[in-house]
Each structure stands twice: as C-alpha cells, then as structure tokens.
From TrEMBL:
<keyword id="KW-0450">Lipoyl</keyword>
<feature type="domain" description="Lipoyl-binding">
    <location>
        <begin position="22"/>
        <end position="104"/>
    </location>
</feature>
<dbReference type="InterPro" id="IPR011053">
    <property type="entry name" value="Single_hybrid_motif"/>
</dbReference>
<protein>
    <recommendedName>
        <fullName>Glycine cleavage system H protein</fullName>
    </recommendedName>
</protein>
<dbReference type="InterPro" id="IPR017453">
    <property type="entry name" value="GCV_H_sub"/>
</dbReference>
<dbReference type="InterPro" id="IPR033753">
    <property type="entry name" value="GCV_H/Fam206"/>
</dbReference>
<dbReference type="GO" id="GO:0005960">
    <property type="term" value="C:glycine cleavage complex"/>
</dbReference>
<feature type="modified residue" description="N6-lipoyllysine">
    <location>
        <position position="63"/>
    </location>
</feature>
<comment type="subunit">
    <text>The glycine cleavage system is composed of four proteins: P, T, L and H.</text>
</comment>
<dbReference type="GO" id="GO:0019464">
    <property type="term" value="P:glycine decarboxylation via glycine cleavage system"/>
</dbReference>
<dbReference type="GO" id="GO:0009249">
    <property type="term" value="P:protein lipoylation"/>
</dbReference>
<dbReference type="Pfam" id="PF01597">
    <property type="entry name" value="GCV_H"/>
</dbReference>
<comment type="function">
    <text>The glycine cleavage system catalyzes the degradation of glycine. The H protein shuttles the methylamine group of glycine from the P protein to the T protein.</text>
</comment>
<comment type="similarity">
    <text>Belongs to the GcvH family.</text>
</comment>
<dbReference type="GO" id="GO:0005829">
    <property type="term" value="C:cytosol"/>
</dbReference>
<dbReference type="InterPro" id="IPR002930">
    <property type="entry name" value="GCV_H"/>
</dbReference>
<dbReference type="InterPro" id="IPR000089">
    <property type="entry name" value="Biotin_lipoyl"/>
</dbReference>
Amino acid sequence: MSLPAELKYTSEHEWVAVDGDVARIGITDYAADKLGDVVFVDLPKVGSTVAAGRVVGEIESTKSVGELYAPLDGEVVEANDAVVDDPSLVNADPFGAGWMIVVRFTELPALLTADEYAALIAE
C-alpha cells in the first residue's frame, strides 16, 4: 500500500495535495481497498462551499457505501468528472486519475503526515 510522503492525510482516509491556496482531494488506496470495487461516485458541484469534517460526496462499491469528507473549508473549483463517468479509476489509481475534487481554501487545518496516517491504519 503506497502513501506518498508529499501528501497530507485525514483520519477519514482522504489525501490532500496542497498547491498554493488550492487542495486536490481524493481517498487513499487503503480506503479504496476497504470499499472494494467502486461502482458509483457522487461529487459536489463546482462553486459549492464545503466545510471541514462535513460529508461532500458519496462513494459506492459492490460491498458498501462510503462518504467523502471535506478535509478543509473552501470552495469547490474543480470536480473530477472522469471518476463520475468511470468509478473504477478510484480503485485503479486513487492518488492519480482517481482524485475527487479541488478546493480553494483560506486556511489549511492540521492534517496527518504519511507516517502519522500509516500509524493510524496499522492500529
């Protein structure tokens, strides 16, 4: 299971790639693996406001339904239509083509490092 060191993580199993005042967000391969084969993804609309810790999307698999949580407050500036059209991208490339949304934020909250997240999922 890979955990890119340059990313930040949440205890709800999202990853966050920060670039200036925007953050690309997806779910970790750990989360994708636990969900199983993803068959449906619902994402917030561009222009919508998200709040840290709130559910902003839904990820359904053949085994269960998972939720996408916003790791920070901000405005959705991009949503990945490719994962809506082809949900299997979440399993095939969770840290790449399987990303979910991009959010413009004003303040970056405390997030987990790769090592901290690895310790969390090892428990």
